[in-house]
Amino acid sequence: xxxxxxxxxxxxxxxxxxxxxxxxxxxxxxxxxxxxxxxxxxxxxxxxxxxxxxxxxxxxxxxxxxxxxxxxxxxxxxxxxxxxxxxxxxxxxxxxxxxxxxxxxxxxxxxxxxxxxxxxxxxxxxxxxxxxxxxxxxxxxxxxxxxxxxxxxxxxxxxxxxxxxxxxxxxxxxxxxxxxxxxxxxxxxxxxxxxxxxxxxxxxxxxxx
Length: 209
Prior knowledge:
Layout lengths: L5 H16 L3 H13 L1 H32 L1 H24 L6 H6 L1 H4 L1 H13 L2 H10 L11 H30 L6 H23 L1
Helix pairs in contact: 1-9, 2-3, 2-7, 2-9, 2-10, 3-4, 3-7, 3-8, 3-9, 4-10
């Protein structure tokens, strides 16, 4: 077993921070959940997303990335499934626009429980095929040639998970601070419908890319 140098880990950390702070479906979900249900409930979404990211890393290292490259139909199926899920989130966000906090909980209890919010965050992470290809492409660059070290895999994957949580916390705090000024009136509905449009736009881009 070879030892991972601190400089190599810093290089991976920089790459992970750049990837996790780049706005995407998971960040958008965290922001929209914060505006609709509050920062505390968003913690469950972010925790679910972190679990999903770790599962994606395990699947990618287990060979799913190679499978997708060898069998494009499998990648296309997952890509379309992920796009459909993002579009569904966008439609739901649009329908719930203007509802905040307790009102949102009362109007959609089946989709706003802690467990539902956690699962939603996990599904967003797991339904993104780009994440699998990212891990499949990046991890080998930080592994010894021809082998997978469990300790190094755990270090890299947990580092990425930690970066994911830090990025979500940053966006959630920003959304909570900015959202407190627009939590009432038509501006809130406009903002929520804007995030719904972004969800649907991401779904379309993912489906046709």
